[in-house]
Fold Ribulose-phosphate 3-epimerase.
Amino acid sequence: MSKIIISPSILSADPANLERDVRLVEEAGAEYLHIDIMDGHFVPNLSYSANVIRALRKKSNLIFDVHLMLQDADKFIDEFAEAGSDIITVHQEAVPNLKETLKNIHSFGKKAGVSLKPGTPVDMILNVLDLTDVVLLMTVEPGFGGQSYLHQVDKKISELYKIINNQNLNIGIEVDGGITEENVNRPVRAGANIIVSGSAIFNSNNIKDTINKMRKKAEQGVQEREINNF
């Protein structure tokens, strides 16, 4: 789990130039593309539809890391799978039967992720870890980009990291919200290996340089974790 994966969030990209911005982060060495889908109900904001994924899929070889912040996520799994998602992540707080939802995602040949809001404890997903490929821990309250990183989530990242290691599970720990070049080592030191960043990447003067610096700082976090046996 020490390999660092960068997943730029297109929530902060230029909506009039999405293809250009996706190409820029792909050329800059990002592995994933984080795509937030919001319905205005589960979170107080609206964003992209499956049609955007369908259109971008033709233009990019990135892993499409699709985060469904939807009140009725179960109704849309098939649509987002068909559109070209590679990873489909749902919120524990938003689906009535998480096990069945994760099984449904896998039935389309996709990786399945579970996301937790900052205040939701890791205990809420212990019974589905065997069906989970990625756990996405929100490091801000979901809904809007440009928020500040919530340091208290570090403890939850570390807790999840220890559980995954103790059970010898192959699960990625993804973090999303307020992550910049300056603080990216914090969640990585705690155990994260998939880094979502929007504003810090797309609002920078040099996207490639920013991604490279963020990756280098994240790798320092891995070294700090190993030295301190976090």
The chain has a mean pLDDT of 94. Residues 5-228 form a domain with the TIM Barrel fold (CATH 3.20.20.70). The chain is about 35% helix and 20% strand.
